[in-house]
From TrEMBL:
D-isomer specific 2-hydroxyacid dehydrogenase NAD-binding domain residues: 115-300
Keyword NAD: yes
UniProt keywords, alphabetically: NAD, Oxidoreductase
Organism: Lactobacillus apis
InterPro entries the record matches: D-isomer_2_OHA_DH_cat_dom, D-isomer_DH_CS, D-isomer_DH_CS1, D-isomer_DH_NAD-bd, D-LDH-like, NAD(P)-bd_dom_sf
Protein name: Putative D-lactate dehydrogenase
Family designation: Belongs to the D-isomer specific 2-hydroxyacid dehydrogenase family.
Pfam families: 2-Hacid_dh, 2-Hacid_dh_C
GO molecular function list: D-lactate dehydrogenase (NAD+) activity; NAD binding
Keyword NAD: yes
Ranges where the D-isomer specific 2-hydroxyacid dehydrogenase catalytic domain occurs: 27-331
Length: 333
């Protein structure tokens, strides 16, 4: 198998090199570039390409050229597959696979970290001590304890259920909503409807994939229905939350805080460094000043386990497809 892995980083490269060593018949090559119409030509001569990027693969040229090189498979190294244009994938007979099991725990543990950070008011505590050298235990810094909280999970798939399990183990009441209910999850979560999760959660965490019908799933109406002591955690996909409505809800104290690993417009900031706050997109300029908001750079997934598994699982499927076997993780719309 001759594979080209786009968007390569040194941490992933370790596992690419290991794969090449352990599979002498394979030739995995890498490029730092994301896949787009400008970089697709690098794929000529390869059997398969692999992608890990937040930018949409929305240029027909990319799919047309890959097909013209005889490539039949794009092996995503991500859980999410919302970047794919399936009309073009179908038109050019390109099979898509993803890596949904690289480590649901990675995102679940990051969600726990976010929840505890917000619950224990570490944002304002850090602001007080770093900006004002203020170490006073002010009344507004008093917290609650996790086992008194209701944790609401929207989207109870692999990541949502791993998250629910962790909070259940800590004694929290965990409620969840999904269009498909899995009875096995009832050991640690109570299924209910979307509105109840919105209204009753102290910690509301999103774990659905992104599809266009879910754009703005959490908007002004939901913020008004949420408890004003509740916090929102989004480590799923940015467009699930309406940025403007989120900013308004935080300013009007309709909710108490937010942890955002993803956000609409993140392409402009993730993996980039800035010199001044004025260089950030407007939404970020507003949110970054709020001590009850924390951003992480789409890094909820980013653990050693995930990085290793995303390389190995994507290449395992690449090999299966090339040898005529069914892939483990095919995806379609
Ligand atoms: C995913 O795997 O879906 C992620 O969100 C990781 C990202 C770097 C694409």
């Amino acid at each position: 198998m001759k594979a080209l892995l786009y968007s390569m980083t040194p941490e992933q490269k370790v596992y690419v090199d290991q794969w090449n060593k352990e599979h002498p018949d394979d030739d995995l090559q890498t490029t730092d570039d994301d896949l787009d119409a400008k970089t697709v030509e690098q794929a000529e001569g390869f059997d398969v390409v692999s992608v890990l990027q937040v930018f949409d693969l929305d240029e027909e040229e990319v799919y047309r050229k890959l097909a013209s090189y005889g490539i039949k498979h794009i092996a995503l190294r991500s859980v999410g597959y919302n970047i794919v244009n399936f009309d073009y994938a179908h038109k050019y007979h390109l099979l898509i696979t993803n890596t949904p099991a690289y480590s649901p725990r990675a995102v679940a543990e990051n969600t726990l970290t976010s929840a505890m950070y917000l619950l224990r008011k570490w944002g304002p505590i850090l602001k007080n001590e770093r900006e004002d050298l203020n170490f006073v235990r002010e009344a507004n810094l008093m917290s609650d304890e996790i086992y008194n909280q209701t944790v609401g999970i929207i989207g109870v798939g692999r990541i949502g259920s791993a998250t629910a399990e962790i909070f259940h183990a800590l004694g929290a009441r965990v409620i969840g909503y999904d269009i498909v209910e899995n009875p096995a999850n009832e050991a640690f979560l109570e299924y209910t409807d979307f509105e109840t999760v919105i209204k009753e959660s102290d910690i509301l965490s999103l774990h659905t994939p992104f599809t266009p019908d879910l754009e703005g799933m959490i908007s002004a109406k939901e913020f008004k229905e949420m408890k004003n002591t509740a916090v929102l955690i989004n480590a799923a996909r940015g467009p699930l939350v309406d940025n403007k409505d989120l900013i308004a809800a935080l300013k009007n104290n309709e909710i108490a805080g937010a942890s955002l690993d993803v956000m609409t417009g993140e392409e402009a900031i993730v993996m980039k460094k800035f010199n001044d706050i004025s260089e950030l997109p407007e939404d970020y300029q507003e949110l970054v000043k709020m001590p009850n908001v924390v951003f992480t750079p789409h890094s909820a997934y980013y653990t050693k386990t995930s990085v290793k598994n995303m390389v190995n699982q994507s290449m395992t499927d690449a090999k299966r497809v090339l040898s005529g076997e069914k892939p483990v993780y095919p995806v379609d719309e």
